[in-house]
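Recall that a protein's primary structure is simply its ordered list of amino acids. Everything else, from secondary elements to tertiary packing, is in principle encoded there. The following example makes that idea concrete.
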Amino acid sequence: MRVKICGVTNVEDARMCADEGADAIGINFVPASKRVVTEDVARAIADAVRGRVLIVGVVADLDVDAMKGLRDRVGLECLQLHGDEPPESLAPLLPHAYKAIRVTSAADVARADAYGGDYVLLDAAAGGSGKTFDWSLARDLAEKRRVTLAGGVDPANVEDAIRVVSPYCVDVASGVEIAGDPRRKDPTRVRELVRRAKTSR
C-alpha cells in the first residue's frame, strides 16, 4: 500500500514524511488552497527529498504549456490535475500525470474512468476538508485502475478505507495535520497513518 501526504508546505515536513515512510508528497499550486506554496518554496521542498519520495504537483485549470513549464521549473515528477480539466489536457502529460475527480455519485466514478493513463485519484466533493465520500463507489474502478483514494482519510479510518476500496494508494492532507494549522503536518499522525496503511493487508 502506497501513501501520499499532500499539502506539504515546508522542507521540514517533507523530510519528516520521507523519514516516516511516505511514498509520495503533494505540493499545492492552487491559489485558493490553504496549502499553496510559491515555486521557490516548492523547489526547495522538492530538492530536499528528491530520490526519497515521488514529488507530485497539485494544479488546477492550467493550460498544458503552463503545467509543463511548472513541472520543469520546480522539478516535479508527476502532476495531479485537480480542476475541471478535460481528458485532452491530461493526455499530453501522460504517463507522469493523473486526473483527480471529486466523487458524489457513481456517475463521477464513470467520468473518472474516461480519463487516460493508469492512475486516477478519487476525492471527496470538498477536497482538503477532511470529509469522506461513499467509498463503496470506488471499489469497481479500483479493480481495473490504479486508484488513489483521497478525501477524509486519517489514521483512524485508513484501514477501513483500504478494506472497502483496495486502492493503489491513499492520499492524506488534513488527516495528518497539526490541529488548527493546515500548513503543518503532525509527525505522530503521519507515523500512525503510514503504519496502519502499510500493515492493513
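DSSP finds eight helices and ten strands in the chain. Residues 11 and 44 are 7 Å apart (CA to CA).
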